[in-house]
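Students often ask what a holo structure prediction actually looks like on paper. The answer is less mysterious than it sounds. You provide the chain, you provide the ligand, and the output is a string of discrete structure tokens encoding the 3D arrangement of the protein together with NDP.
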Amino acid sequence: MTFIPENWTPQDGELDGKSILITGAGDGIGRAAALSFARYGAEVLLLGRTEAKLDSVYDAIVSEGGVTPAVIPADLAQTSHDQLMALAGELSGSVPCLHGLLHNASLLGDRKPLSQTSAAIWHEIMQVNVNAAFMLTQALVPMLQEAPSASVVFTSSSVGRRGRAYWGGYAVSKFATEGLMQVLADELGSISDIRVNSLNPGAVNTAMRRTAYPAEPPQTNPAPESLMDHWIFLMSDASKDLHGQALSVQS
Ligand code: NDP
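The corresponding structure tokens follow.
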């Protein structure tokens, strides 16, 4: 069941005046979200690992006449707490507040049984999918608190709500993502105007999905662009009352 109210569609300028940071903004769902947010008026801050991909999103937004984005190259597997705190300091000098934070970057890792999962890959998955999301959130909450209302979205997965064989560290990291969402939502619910939710996109035709299911025809699944109303809704004021929820794009 969709969480978008019946008949809701984003209006022109739905995200006007909002500054939204997206991690993993260079590809897949993050790229589509960045382009969509910009089309609806947001200033987007594009964080990602591959600078050339971020530049391509930047160019597309500028060529469409969107608000000039910021490009933040960062490999979340390598970024320290101090570096993320410094990043937040720099951002607070260039944007007055943050209205949205989409934790989207994730590492899939190997599809293997736990007995064959390498500890190094396990640590890297946890670093990118969980530790970096925690550290970035901690660094950016003060800027989110400066906004009249703000939305934090953690990207989950069906294997983060029900574990399945051979999804290894990725699945466990998504359970942790749900935990991070719940704890943060409970902490912020009564003391701030920051809403916090998790979102399971369901199967989407991206590089990650194609890697996870190499034998599946890619067109089996929707393109990220076709699902973007869900992400726009969560970043718009229309979702002000949604808080602490584990949401799904596709049933
Ligand atoms: P993609 O692999 O297509 O994109 C992931 C993005 O995250 C890429 O831009 C990638 O950068 C970035 N990223 C990966 N590692 C790092 C890192 N160390 N530092 C910074 N950025 C990094 O995946 P999707 O678009 O499919 O996935 C987006 C989110 O949706 C993920 O959280 C995923 O778990 C979730 N999801 C996706 C599903 C699907 O079917 N597609 C299903 C359920 C959940 P780069 O381009 O440089 O590799």
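Residues 32 and 225 are 5 Å apart (CA to CA).
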